Amino acid sequence: MTPDEVDTEAEANRRHTEAMKALKAERDAMMAEKIDAPSLLLVHTGDGKGKSTAGFGMVARALGWGQKVGIVQYIKGKWITGERQFFRKFPDQVRYEIMGEGFTWDTQDRSRDIAAARAAWTKSLEMLADPDLNFVLLDELNIALRYDYLDIHEVVEALKARPRDKHVCITGRNAKPELIEIADLVTDMKLVKHPFEAGIKAQRGIDF
Prior knowledge:
Layout: H1 3-32, E1 41-46, H2 51-64, E2 69-73, H3 82-87, E3 94-98, H4 104-107, H5 110-129, E4 135-139, H6 141-146, H7 152-160, E5 167-171, H8 177-182, E6 185-189
């Protein structure tokens, strides 16, 4: 490296250090204004893959902090999934309820789907009220709401009335506007490209 190149690199490093100092001061000032929230309502929706995956990622985080978690799966009842097999290894920390009857195009029975959704919602209410649970994942509740198997107003009121220290994550496409309105965080997963479109089936360990 020539002397000129050394000087240029030194100047670039100096400018970087000054920029990062300014950024840190800005971030510190911003964080000083933030508050701790007793609980959050999070919604993962959209056409892209990763909604349930993100929810189960938060389950893993909660377990890492020694917290207790409740999980209700509304749709994928018949699937033997990786998350189902993994999180059942933590019986002291995880209450796992698989309530779905399968995808709506498999059951082809609206009355049966409604009954399954109601049973799942009953379990969900139990978990929301359980003081031992820190975090509750309602996996693909949005699907039950999308088809009006459950009353969105009943669900919204129950979520708003949950204990102040109860974090809740809801997943599934087509989140209702009423749910989005009361949520603290809403992530819309955007589909850019998916192997299914190229004729590839769901893969064990990736999709289930």
